[in-house]
């Protein structure tokens, strides 16, 4: 399930490439983050120069982890107010956007192998249903991490905003869809349920963290549970392409004329 580790292009161009996340570094040095650090220094009554971004991030995550795991409002949380937390959240979203999300094409294309495995299992079940056979694989469970789910969500087109997240548009991204605290909480899960509605009416419902989500571009009353064939048509280019070995080559061969 760690397909990205085997994707040479992703490893070289994004994972091990500091310039791939330059927007994150710019935001860390920007006015919003600097203001958070200054407010922490004021609360602690220490010089501004003593509070670094790394210290600020460590304090924020100490607060978040203790609250999430132990339901404790720890002293670390007293260093931040709600506005500070929103800035820290954006910094995290910005990193995931450029490291695993829409920031670079190879981020999502690294999950091609998982994408095809997913649809091959759905196709197998769909064909068995259509032929009146017993479905041989009623449930498939695959376990990974957030780093596994996010590239696949991106490849499927979920939570894509009209504008990319950058170091300079924090103020205009307050209502962004790409919000990892909602997409990837603890025990995050993506479920695709294939329904047999009779008469060759097969429908596919995607659920993220037990809540229905809709495929971008599929609208109407059945958007949350579209026809399986409509989903395949929507993903046609990926189903006929998106080859893991080809996408993950560091140097792609020139296109044929």
TrEMBL record:
<dbReference type="GO" id="GO:0003993">
    <property type="term" value="F:acid phosphatase activity"/>
</dbReference>
<dbReference type="InterPro" id="IPR000560">
    <property type="entry name" value="His_Pase_clade-2"/>
</dbReference>
<protein>
    <submittedName>
        <fullName>Multiple inositol polyphosphate phosphatase 1-like</fullName>
    </submittedName>
</protein>
<dbReference type="GO" id="GO:0052745">
    <property type="term" value="F:inositol phosphate phosphatase activity"/>
</dbReference>
<dbReference type="InterPro" id="IPR029033">
    <property type="entry name" value="His_PPase_superfam"/>
</dbReference>
<dbReference type="Pfam" id="PF00328">
    <property type="entry name" value="His_Phos_2"/>
</dbReference>
<keyword id="KW-0378">Hydrolase</keyword>
